[in-house]
Amino acid sequence: MCSETEGDFMEYMTNVVTNGLTTVAISLGSQLGLFDIMATMDKPMTSQEIADAAGLKERYVREWLGAMVTGTIVNTDPNSEKFMIPKHRQRELVSTRKNQAGLARGLTSLYRLQDDVMDCFRKEGPSGIPHSKYEYHYRWLASFKKNDYDDTKMRALIGQVSGLEKVLGAGIHVCDVGCNTGYHVGMLAKLFPSSQFVGVDISESAIAEAQKNNQSVNTTFETQDAYNLPSDWSDKFFYVYVSKVIHDLAYSEKALVEIYRILKPGGFLSLVEVNAHSKPSDNLSIPNAQGIYVFSLCHCVPSALNYPGGNALGSCWGREAATSMLKDIGFDCVQVFEIPNQPEEIHISAQKPQGI
How confident is the model at residue 148 (pLDDT cuts 50, 70, 90)? Predict the structure, then answer.
């Protein structure tokens, strides 16, 4: 029997909404570089000094600082009216790391689409939202994903697939499907210079950025459709890497069938996906699950449903549905791994059977 009272729930809702408002201010501070400026200060500064250092108007900075002080993000000395961020908080605020301030920017990027999402709910409304309306969100996503992994985390992921690191070191063909601006495939190319890497994405602008940022001789980038990869790529790649792409696609199974086709018999697939289960009731213990569903509601589902017959798996399609789909397609040795120091993600590994 539930012991929660009306007052308990009111207090809970007050905290939820207040924290949501604080998220807006955190996003502003991150985008304006205020956290980065304050992290470099070796002593407390006035609002004017912070504004001058950031090249911003003092009155707006002062009001922002009020939100940050009362939100327990920034500390202040009530006597001197000077402000600082304690060292132990800076990691979650500066723009050079994947952190909660960076996530706040992503959440506020979706606020811009609230009216569009509401229209999709209505029976007479559109089926979904076109990708063109997510331009700002995609720019945020590219910058946020860039800080996803370092060499240590990538090696740990590779090490979860038996024998993969050895063959990568010897030299194989690798494809990153949905590579965005190429950060992950560029990292892999540097770790394994004897292998050849191809990054593909449907976005021409993302591929142009990837080509500009990655000059390794063992890496190429191509604009390709995951549903219709080149016919001469059949059985070409020993390893295919896909990071948080499949759940966004309108025709996820079709893309996985294409990936199966381009893999060599005996080759491996790594899917990096959101750490979730397929049933909401099983996600109650998953950290930040409600935030994952909100991202999915505002982006993953409407962008997929914008296409006729889109299946709209959503961010929380879950390990159960993912492993079942892979097995139905014909993959063997389907395994789910936790990713060290990356609790919000899982690594789903699968193998194309020998002799196919």
Answer: low
